[in-house]
């Protein structure tokens, strides 16, 4: 019987495959006339937005989200490379490129990219994260401007000139960026220390901006290898959102990107983070810490895991706004803290559920430990109410819509979830979260928020002040 | 019949104008209402804006406007703070209050399906605050803790010292969030008096954006705020702007810095100054973006700072002109020298034709970003109301930029850029620097303050 079902299923699968090929050929033929690529699908989202997914032969993926009533468009290039792809001793190289890509190309002198973009009213920038690097330009809707941005973005994907002079000049800027974001910033230093301590094997333990020593030592050879390997069409997804001429946009993408060859991207072999068997703790003492503070982190699964929605909603319940448990207890009722927050990042690989707290003057951090661990225990033992769950879901839903307000917000959501696996997650995100139950919350609290799975960073003022009794 | 009359009244009071996706009308109750619809996402935003703010704070009660505004969320005559919070959370809604110096904005956001119950809370907190004394004491303790926490943020800290010193004795020199010493003195009676003075119909306007219907929301707001007392409209008498003579430096001493925060500037122009558009182009070329002189010279050519910018804040009376950079400790003196010499050159020679073309085109072309969402459109119109800008400000924005010539820009620079009389705030580990600043001349006044000073 089982064999029969298997055979039947194989036959049905074969028919589906044939059908897909036929449809694919039909679509491809239709598209080849204009774009040289394949349109894979089209869907409606967010009221009047139509989203199409295309792919060029060289592997470049394209998401076009047409919003006809917008006076602007956002052009995001997402590279499927981030600090996760960095080797020990070479940290910061992905972020280094975030700077280098605004320099000279074979076709543009240094400074020309920014000059042309600014002349056209573009807002441009880039960001680097553990799983990705993105470059964006947001421009007023205009056909000439669309062709311009496609031409310039394709140019810097393929034609960057990398030399010692540029690397050395940008190295100083990046060292100053690190001083600004980490070395002279209390929160930045504590977050860096937390990742370092929590991850023993996985590169999520390395800082995205890189260790100062590594920034100082990165060389031309490293940069050329990284550029040739990861800055290629088969490592990228274009996301364009706003008001534009779809057909012409596809033609220009074909014209400027199709000649760029794909690269051989090494198979990602990242070390798996071993389960944490014992609680870890590090105390940082700094001159510039005003009052005692702490970060708490628990290892949790990767973004696609079904436990992520209940964990994220749990974070909302613990410290999302004034009505959340810890905020109400520590900031409002007992007045021992100025700030408490909780949450997680959506990442490709197993990540951290984090809680942070900053104490008020003369309040010892031990009180924070006691309150937070007691509240977690309470949820593990007694669970949460349906009313509390509904509150957290509504807050989450509002934040989600708020993040989608602009063309850039939509482009960020589509690109991020495409990197994580499927852009449609950005559209149907709420479905995944609406299904969370009170039982799920209690279960994940029990499963993940356990002492041996916890890493803590405690920040203390260097000069120990006398406490009031 | 009454309802019919009510609808007729609303109809008559409409149509001040409706263009660019925004409708502006006057409600039956006398306030302006600005509406921009956008039905793409199931959320909407409501605003109540008061056309006066923290410049009214008495000097000894700095922070009073902010505390009064925040107290709206700390309980009403029928809802405790906790009830307000719980009810908003259940609706997936938020109310944020921003007490600025020349306006207070209360903005609420909600899922559209919950608009009616949300509006009931939104109007309740504005119309019926209880000003509970225990909550007031609690809020004061909270604000004082936050002021202490702010000392960890070097950039916020240098900005605070810079503005306080540049506008010493002027209301622009006060911080909306107050000082530890003044917040402590704020009493329940002062808060109530202040509320009665500012939270009145003649000082208010409303706005709404998002997934809503303009006609329906007009009705709902009129109904919800029908009991708002009309009160008197208040007009602030600004003192003259302060004058900086020569160069003055304040070193804000903070231990163990490996990076310095530098802020340099003087008093600039008011928002209705005829040189506003020429100076917009001028400043954009000097320190507005990535291709501007400051960024090119400080970051791109020398790598001394991650960023370097300049701005002028055009307010009802002259606000600040300022430039900033944050170099590593070893490059601090050279960066300071460079910034001063760049500004001297700019003040003396103005900008070039090439810089002018780039800056002007950039500003003209980036205009759509000011109005590319319903919420931004509404925000722009609120700003126009607060600053007293003409109603065609947005419609003529690009045309006014287009008309500006290079000569006008350079004349405006000559008139307003003053490289001789400057105020300089530097956050650093001071002992390393004081002796290195002799290049500024012996007449330069240097004061050292602790970063913990009030």
Structure description:
The complex is a heterodimer of chains A (about 475) and B (about 450). Chain A has about 475 residues and is α+β, with helices and mostly antiparallel strands. Chain A folds into 2 domains: about 210 residues, 2-Layer Sandwich (Cytochrome Bc1 Complex, Chain A, domain 1), CATH 3.30.830.10; about 180 residues, 2-Layer Sandwich (Cytochrome Bc1 Complex, Chain A, domain 1), CATH 3.30.830. Helix content of chain A is about 45%, strand content about 20%. Chain A has 17 helices and 12 strands. In chain A, the strands form 2 sheets. Chain A has a 7-stranded mixed sheet with strand order 1-2-3-7-4-6-5, sandwiched between helices. The radius of gyration of chain A is 25 Å and the shape is globular. Chain B is α+β, with helices and mostly antiparallel strands. Chain B folds into 2 domains: about 210 residues, 2-Layer Sandwich (Cytochrome Bc1 Complex, Chain A, domain 1); about 200 residues, 2-Layer Sandwich (Cytochrome Bc1 Complex, Chain A, domain 1), CATH 3.30.830. Helices cover about 40% and strands about 20% of the residues of chain B. In chain B, the strands form 2 sheets. A 7-stranded mixed sheet of chain B has the order 1-2-3-7-4-6-5, with helices on both faces. In chain B, helix 3 packs antiparallel against helix 4. The longest helix of chain B is centred in the C-terminal third of the chain and has 18 residues. Classes of the chains: A alpha+beta (about 475), B alpha+beta (about 450). At the A-B interface, helix 3, strand 6, helix 5, helix 11 and helix 13 of A face helix 3, strand 6, helix 5, helix 11 and helix 13 of B.
């Amino acid at each position: 019987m089982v064999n029969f079902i298997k055979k039947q299923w194989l036959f049905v699968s074969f028919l589906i495959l044939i059908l897909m090929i036929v449809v694919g050929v039909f679509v491809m033929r239709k598209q080849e006339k204009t774009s040289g690529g394949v349109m894979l699908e089209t869907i409606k989202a967010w009221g009047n937005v139509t989203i199409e997914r295309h792919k060029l032969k060289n592997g470049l993926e394209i998401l076009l989200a047409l919003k006809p009533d917008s006076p602007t468009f956002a052009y995001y290039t997402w590279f499927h490379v981030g600090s996760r792809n960095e080797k020990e001793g070479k940290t910061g190289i992905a972020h280094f490129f975030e700077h280098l890509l605004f320099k000279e190309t074979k076709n543009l002198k240094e400074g020309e990219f920014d000059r042309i973009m600014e002349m056209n009213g573009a807002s441009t920038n880039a960001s680097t994260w553990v799983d990705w690097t993105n470059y964006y330009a947001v421009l007023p809707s205009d056909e000439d401007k669309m062709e311009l941005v496609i031409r310039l973005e394709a140019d810097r994907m393929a034609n960057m000139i990398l030399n010692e002079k540029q690397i050395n000049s940008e190295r100083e800027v990046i060292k100053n960026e690190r001083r600004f974001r980490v070395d002279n910033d209390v929160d930045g230093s504590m977050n860096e220390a937390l990742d370092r301590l929590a991850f023993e094997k996985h590169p999520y333990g390395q800082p995205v901006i890189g260790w100062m020593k590594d920034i100082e030592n990165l060389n031309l050879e490293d940069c050329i290898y990284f550029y040739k390997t990861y800055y290629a069409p088969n490592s990228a997804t274009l996301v364009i959102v706003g008001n534009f001429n779809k057909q012409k946009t596809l033609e220009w993408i074909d014209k400027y990107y199709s000649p760029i060859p794909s690269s051989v991207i090494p198979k990602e072999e990242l070390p798996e983070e071993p389960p944490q068997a014992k609680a870890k703790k590090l105390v940082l003492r700094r001159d510039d810490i005003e009052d005692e503070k702490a970060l708490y982190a628990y290892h949790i699964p990767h973004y696609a895991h079904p436990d992520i929605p209940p964990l994220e909603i749990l974070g909302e319940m613990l410290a999302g706004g004034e009505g959340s448990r810890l905020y109400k207890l520590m900031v409002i009722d007992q007045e021992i803290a100025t700030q408490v927050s909780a949450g997680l990042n959506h990442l490709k690989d197993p990540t951290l559920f984090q809680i942070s707290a900053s104490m008020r003057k003369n309040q010892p951090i031990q009180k924070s430990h006691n309150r937070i661990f007691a509240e977690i225990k309470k949820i593990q033992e007694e669970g949460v109410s349906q009313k509390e769950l509904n509150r957290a879901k509504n807050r989450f839903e509002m934040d989600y819509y708020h993040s989608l307000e602009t063309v850039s917000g939509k482009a960020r959501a589509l690109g991020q979830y495409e990197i994580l696996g499927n852009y449609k997650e950005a559209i149907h995100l709420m479905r995944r979260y609406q299904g969370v139950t009170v039982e799920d919350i209690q279960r994940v609290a029990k499963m993940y928020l356990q002492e041996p799975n916890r890493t803590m960073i405690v920040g203390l003022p260097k000069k120990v002040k006398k406490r009031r009794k | 019949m009454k309802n019919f009359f009510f609808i007729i009244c609303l109809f008559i009071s409409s149509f001040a104008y409706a263009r660019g996706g925004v409708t502006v009308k006057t409600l039956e109750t006398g306030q302006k209402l600005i509406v921009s619809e956008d039905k793409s996402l199931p959320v909407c935003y409501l605003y109540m804006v008061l056309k006066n703010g923290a410049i009214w704070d008495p000097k000894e009660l700095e922070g009073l406007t902010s505390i009064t505004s925040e107290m709206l969320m700390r309980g009403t005559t029928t809802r405790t703070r906790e009830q307000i919070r719980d009810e908003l959370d259940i609706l997936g809604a938020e109310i944020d209050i921003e007490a600025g110096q020349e306006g207070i904005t209360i903005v609420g956001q909600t899922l559209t399906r919950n608009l009616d119950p949300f509006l009931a809370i939104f109007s309740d907190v504005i119309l019926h605050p209880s000003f509970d004394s225990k909550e007031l004491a609690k809020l004061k303790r909270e604000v004082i803790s936050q002021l202490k926490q702010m000392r960890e943020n070097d950039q916020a800290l240098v900005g605070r010292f810079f503005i306080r010193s540049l506008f010493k004795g002027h209301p622009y020199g006060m911080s909306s969030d107050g000082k530890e010493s003044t917040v402590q003195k704020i009493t329940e009676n002062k808060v109530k008096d202040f509320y009665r003075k500012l939270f009145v119909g003649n000082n208010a306007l409303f706005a709404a954006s998002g997934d809503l219907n303009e006609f329906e929301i007009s009705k709902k707001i009129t109904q919800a705020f029908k009991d708002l007392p009309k009160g008197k409209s208040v007009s602030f008498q600004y003192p003259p702007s302060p004058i900086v003579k020569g160069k003055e430096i304040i070193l804000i001493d903070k231990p163990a810095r490996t990076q310095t925060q530098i802020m340099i500037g003087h008093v600039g122009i008011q928002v209705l100054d005829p040189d506003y558009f020429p100076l917009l182009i001028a400043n954009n070329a000097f320190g507005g973006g990535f291709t501007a002189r400051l960024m090119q010279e400080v970051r791109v050519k020398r790598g001394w700072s991650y960023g370097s910018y300049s701005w002028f804040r055009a307010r009802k009376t002259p606000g600040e002109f300022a430039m900033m950079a944050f170099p590593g400790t070893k490059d601090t003196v050279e960066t300071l020298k460079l910034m001063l010499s760049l500004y001297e050159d700019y003040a003396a020679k103005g900008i070039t034709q090439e810089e002018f073309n780039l800056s002007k085109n950039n500003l003209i072309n980036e205009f759509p970003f000011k109005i590319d969402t319903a919420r931004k459109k509404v925000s722009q119109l609120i700003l126009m109301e607060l600053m007293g800008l003409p109603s065609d400000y947005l419609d003529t924005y690009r045309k006014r930029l287009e008309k500006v010539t290079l000569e006008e820009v350079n004349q405006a620079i000559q008139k307003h850029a003053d490289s001789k009389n400057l105020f300089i705030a530097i956050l650093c580990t001071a002992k390393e620097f004081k002796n290195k600043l002799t290049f500024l001349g012996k007449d330069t006044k240097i004061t050292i303050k602790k970063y913990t000073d009030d």
